[in-house]
Design goal:
By secondary structure, the protein is an all-beta fold. 0% of the residues lie in helices and 47% in strands. β4 and β5 form a beta hairpin. The protein is globular. The model has no long low-confidence stretch (mean pLDDT 96).
């Protein structure tokens, strides 16, 4: 069993940066592919980024490619999402997820994730 807790959300101006964190407990996050999803009000949860167990392979949604970076810190059992050049449309609750699925085998859909955090709210507004 893995427990995931997100933190670091908040209010940021357009063009600004923010880093959200995901702390794992119960098991090492190195045993899982890790991903970030987000859900804006009135919309479905959508994939943002994923990182393989090794930390070598990653995937990004087209909407965040070049602006967001997913990384893991194995020593701290943490996963981070660094978000730069933020836009108002990035406003959402951001969820951390862990999956036994390997990156590249299937699309990263919410139904394929094994564990979820409760989310952290990111608001991009002036």
């Amino acid at each position: 069993q893995v427990q995931l807790v997100e933190s670091g959300g908040g209010l940021v101006q357009p063009g600004g940066s923010l880093r959200v964190s995901c702390e794992g407990s119960g098991r090492t996050l190195d045993s899982y592919s890790m991903a970030w999803f987000r859900q804006a009000p009135g919309k479905e949860r959508e994939f943002v980024a994923a990182l393989s167990r090794s930390g070598i392979s990653n995937l990004y949604a087209d909407s965040v490619k070049g602006r967001f970076t997913i990384v893991r810190d194995s020593a701290k059992n943490m996963v981070y999402l660094q978000m730069n050049s933020l836009k108002p449309e990035d406003t959402a609750v951001y969820y951390c997820a862990a999956s036994r699925m390997r990156v590249g085998t299937r699309p990263f859909l919410p139904a394929y994730m094994d564990y979820w955090g409760k989310g952290t709210l990111v608001t991009v507004s002036s």
